[in-house]
Predict the structure of Putative cytochrome P450 6a14.
Amino acid sequence: MSYVFLSIVLVIVALVLLYLHNHYSYWARRGIPQEDPIYGFGNMKGIGREFHFRDLNSRLYERFKRSASPLGGIYTFFQRGAFIVDLDLIKHILIKDFSSFHDRGIFSNVRDEPLTGHLLRLEGEQWRAMRNKLTPVFTSGKMKFMFPTVVAVAENLSRACGEFRTEFEVRELTARYTTDVIGTCAFGIECNSLSDPNAEFRNYGRLIFGKPRHSQLVQALILFNPKMARRLRCKLFNDEVSEFFINAVRSTVEYRVQNKVKRNDFMDMLIEMMAEDQEAASKRDGIDLSQGLTLLQMAAQAFVFFAAGFHTSSTTMSFCLYELAMNQDIQDKLREEILRVLSAHNNIVTYEAVNEMTYLEQV
């Protein structure tokens, strides 16, 4: 009996090893260079502990660039991936053949967590439908409408800086600034983070990134196997975060519609889009109103506008200010350009003036 059991175990082990060998030789069998993977880890061993994703990307890029191949094969744990190094191939994927490559393989679970139903996470027909709806919103002309809001909040930033008498944390200050800017544009709400570091929007902004819903193990599952995570009905954010942002959108939409309030911001554009969908549906028999923009879809778009915008922008600003502090000559040159351009615009910060600051964009 023991021999039978041992034989079964050996057969199972052999089959598993055969499967892993077949899986981790996928690219090599197709003549595409790959970095030797480790069973179970792929090329990810040490990630997050010994080195950062940046180090991994740099190593893989140098490895595949030397091979003169337009791409290389990688394995993120059990998932296969293509690492593209040829510029022309990148352009094909991102532009010419984009219709075949728009899915990002990122987790979304609209059924259980509506806030994940935004353009960054949606796939397939859901992504295509949402992209068609939102494309008119992100034209340069539409973005220009929001610029006065950015300037108004910048004046609050200037006043906040004037109140400091000792050392202060720049990263926190820029996060409060971008929270006010994007919170105002995306939700139409005066967040007041610059005057109150513990303002409601700022606290929930901290929760998004600072208080994850799951352990690192579950986060890894969601990141590297989004399909399984979706089947398990996983969620990304704490319920209080989802409820706060959905309620913020709901109350803003209801107030503006009932009181006919117009502010020329992102929320206005979404409300107009929802009204147009409803009007078009009412004029055509048999049209399902659910095909129009829903309030939960609006909440998802406003949420990603906020979450992706305030964190990335404030981090970039913090690093930029640090580099300017460490390089006085660059700081002086940049300040000279800003003053020169503003003097040509009556010392008023306008959309056109900022676009003329080429050195600022380079910095």
